[in-house]
Amino acid sequence: MTAVTFTAPGTTTAEHELAALQREHGRPLFALLLRLSDGDRQRAEDLVQETLVRAWQHPEALHAAGFESVRPWLLTVARRLAIDARRARRARPPEIVDEIPETARVTADHAERAAAALDVRQAVKTLTPEHRDVLVLVYFRGASVAEAAEILGIPAGTVKSRAYYALRALRRVLPGYATEPR
Question: Given this model, what pLDDT does residue 157 score?
């Protein structure tokens, strides 16, 4: 009894051969390419398809008289495609994604920084002159506690105490800018 093959309308013999290659060699190709793609299933599937396209483009390799099986040729093509894909990924810079990572620093724009500076200036004006002087010297002009104590003519402990209470008062006046100390 001879086997009868039915072809769907519009399909060619080449398409049938390609489908037969997929059925017969698809799983071993996928297994190899999955290993070579470091477990990336999508990349391995893409490379299997590319391997089969190469087979379709080179029918002479599929029908060579010297081969018992086309599988070694397919596996060689697949391995070379995987190597080329890996080299291409290494040669180009990493892709930039549209999403902002959770660990990315959010930088306020100029308007937000200007508004915050105005808020801080207004809040500093509500402090007593003693607290304001310490805060301006230590935090805005970068003086050390010892330098601020010398300039103001007060002990270093008093500078620390006034700075603490000044910051605490600012936290009350500027809710949302900082949390209350523990």
Answer: 94
